[in-house]
Backbone:
């Protein structure tokens, strides 16, 4: 690999490589997998569909979508996350799930193009240059007209409002990281990870070959959910 290439594991997020965080992850974060599967069914997800998930984590979405499609490829860089995901796949006997240790920038797709690519709260681990490279790769593994469902922390405000908006978000954090997202974790997200502005990400999505069918921003302008079509 070229010396200039990003090391995805180094950018995976301290907590995602921490077995203690992984062990409590499902108790503190509900990824709403069933509702997401229902949404994708409305967009054509069927028992013939190929689905790839990036940053699959403990596999909440993977486990929800597997019974509804033909093949799921669950991709993540973190070994502790993948161990938890693999255990869940075995417990639930999900025979159509392939667990792959790789990242947005290194996964090599084989077989029929994906009908759906799914990624929730993972793309922000890449700096913006690499987000664009990753989005181009996701575009290339989708069939034309295929769907990318993307959630992330995306700052939908002007730089002048950054301090007030970020302070307000950090103030929602709790004291401990056991059962909730702590203030220290939210501060770490802003300081050490690469969430970007919507006015950078959204033109980037278009430039990388997606039509933005739906863009939803939370009331606090911190979280975004997109439905994107490969053009
Ligand atoms: C906050 S967790 C989200 C997990 C899950 N998608 C969810 O919504 O609950 C972020 C996940 O992205 C993974 N990740 C970080 N960098 C990545 C990369 N470059 N490629 C793929 N996955 C990555 C982490 O290991 C972690 O499992």
Residues:
């Amino acid at each position: 690999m070229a010396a200039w290439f990003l090391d995805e594991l180094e950018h995976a997020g301290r907590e995602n490589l921490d077995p203690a965080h992984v062990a409590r992850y499902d108790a503190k974060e509900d990824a709403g997998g069933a509702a997401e599967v229902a949404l994708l069914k409305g967009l054509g997800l069927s028992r013939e569909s190929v689905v790839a998930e990036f940053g699959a984590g403990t596999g909440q979405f993977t486990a929800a979508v597997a019974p509804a499609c033909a093949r799921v490829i669950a991709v993540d860089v973190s070994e502790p996350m993948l161990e938890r995901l693999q255990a869940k796949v075995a417990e639930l006997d999900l025979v159509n799930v392939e667990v792959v240790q790789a990242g947005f920038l290194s996964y090599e797709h084989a077989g029929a193009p994906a009908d759906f690519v799914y990624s929730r709260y993972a793309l922000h681990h890449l700096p913006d240059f690499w987000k664009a490279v990753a989005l181009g790769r996701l575009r290339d593994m989708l069939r034309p007209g295929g769907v990318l469902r993307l959630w992330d922390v995306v700052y939908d405000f002007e730089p002048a409002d950054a301090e007030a908006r970020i302070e307000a978000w950090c103030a929602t954090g709790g004291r401990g990281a056991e059962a909730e997202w702590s203030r220290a974790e939210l501060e770490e997200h802003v300081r050490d990870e690469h969430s970007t502005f919507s006015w950078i990400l959204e033109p980037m999505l278009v430039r990388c070959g997606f039509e933005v069918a739906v863009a939803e921003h939370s009331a606090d302008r911190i979280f975004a959910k997109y439905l994107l079509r490969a053009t």
User: Anything to note?
Assistant: Residues 20 and 115 are 34 Å apart (CA to CA). The domain at 14-153+197-230 is CATH 3.40.50.150 (Rossmann fold). Residues 8, 12-13, 16, 29, 31, 54-57, 60, 75-78, 81, 103-104, 120-122, 125-126 surround S-adenosylmethionine (CB under 6 Å). The chain is about 35% helix and 20% strand.
